């Protein structure tokens, strides 16, 4: 049944969009860093998972235990070394957003150049759990279903961390009002660094999962950044529930267009949906503080 096929494929795609966007939502919602290099970090993680699998036989599921902590550490250093000077000199959060766009735009080309120098510009993929399972009469690749399961698990763990831990509460407080957070002895700079590093860990996990079923190359980082931005703005800045809903809506919309209209129009459909939502709900579907 074509409609059911499109819906199931759209839900699996949307789940990945949601996970990819959650890290960017955390970085921007708390640290107020608009990280344009976000997609390049995802692609770099995908290439790392590919290299570990093809050269050392390391399963991507094991890479999920290795690359996200590495991504956490690298993004913490990026925040401290690159963005912290911008934070200190910025007179307002709006000024910080503008400065971070320019800085991350430069970082984008640094990461892309390094990956290009190491792996070249060709497309890469690898076969991992590519067996087909039939779900409600619809054939779905096992690696896609596994990636969706891990995406939901990681998103759930992040939600629990933000709502059931002291550090998570601090991040949500900084997201709402950094000035008020300081009044209750929250270190705003440390919380922002933590949020940025957590976002980096999430995007590295996304890169590992995407590499399991997608053919990728170094130039695809801009596409992932764009999709993440669309989901974050559609869902509402700082809202994890909004990322989930917006990601699923975007994935289903793209799948329906690809199935019933034309595969080449999926990008146009994404922007049409995005622009329509901006007209109807300029602040997104949800409005939350890293919620």
Description:
It is built from eleven helices and two strands; from the N terminus they run ααααββααααααα. A two-stranded antiparallel ribbon has the order 1-2. Strand 1 (132-135) and strand 2 (138-141) form a beta hairpin. It has 291 residues and is mostly helical. The chain has helices spanning 2-31, 38-56, 60-89, 93-119, 142-164, 166-176, 178-183, 188-211, 221-235, 240-260, 266-280; strands at 132-135, 138-141. The mean pLDDT is 87.
Comma- or semicolon-separated keywords:
291 residues, mainly alpha, two-stranded antiparallel ribbon, 11 helices
Question: Quick recap of the structure?
Answer:
Helices cover 76% and strands 3% of the residues. The protein is mostly helical and 291 residues long.
Roughly what is the average pLDDT, rounded to an integer?
87
Strand content: under 5%
How many helices? The count is 11
Helix-strand pattern, N to C? HHHHEEHHHHHHH
> Class by helix and strand content?
mainly alpha
Could you give the distance between the termini?
37 Å
Number of strands: 2
Give the proportion of residues in helices: over 70%
**For the largest beta sheet, what order do the strands appear in spatially?**
1-2
Question: What sort of overall outline do the alpha carbons produce when their principal axes are compared?
Answer: globular
| Biggest sheet character | 2 strands, antiparallel
Residue ranges: pLDDT <50 for 5 or more in a row? none
Query: Radius of gyration over alpha carbons?
Result: 19 Å
């Amino acid at each position: 049944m074509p409609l059911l096929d499109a819906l199931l494929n759209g839900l699996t795609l949307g789940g990945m969009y949601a996970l990819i966007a959650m890290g960017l939502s955390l970085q921007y919602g708390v640290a107020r860093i608009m990280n344009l290099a976000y997609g390049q970090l995802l692609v770099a993680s995908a290439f790392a998972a590919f290299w570990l699998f093809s050269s050392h036989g390391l399963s991507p599921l094991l890479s999920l235990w290795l690359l996200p902590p590495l991504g956490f550490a690298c993004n913490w250093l990026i925040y401290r070394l690159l963005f912290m000077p911008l934070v200190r000199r910025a007179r307002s959060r709006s000024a910080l957003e503008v400065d971070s766009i320019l800085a991350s735009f430069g970082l984008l080309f640094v990461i892309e150049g390094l990956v290009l120098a190491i792996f070249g510009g060709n497309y890469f993929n690898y076969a991992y759990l590519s067996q087909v399972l039939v779900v409600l009469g619809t054939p779905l690749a096992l690696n896609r279903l596994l990636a969706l399961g891990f995406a939901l698990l990681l998103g759930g763990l992040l939600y629990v961390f933000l709502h059931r831990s002291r550090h998570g509460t601090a991040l949500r407080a900084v997201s709402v009002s950094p000035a008020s957070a300081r009044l209750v002895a929250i270190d705003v700079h440390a919380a922002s660094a933590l949020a940025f590093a957590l976002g980096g860990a999430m995007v590295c996990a996304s890169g590992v999962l995407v590499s399991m079923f997608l053919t990728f190359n170094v130039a695809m980082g801009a596409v992932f950044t764009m999709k993440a931005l669309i989901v974050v703005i559609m869902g509402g800045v700082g809202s994890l529930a909004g990322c989930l809903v917006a990601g699923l809506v975007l994935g289903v919309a793209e799948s329906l267009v690809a199935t019933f209209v034309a595969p080449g129009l999926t990008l146009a459909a994404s922007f049409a949906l995005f622009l329509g939502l901006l007209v109807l709900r300029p602040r997104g579907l949800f409005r939350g503080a890293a919620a």
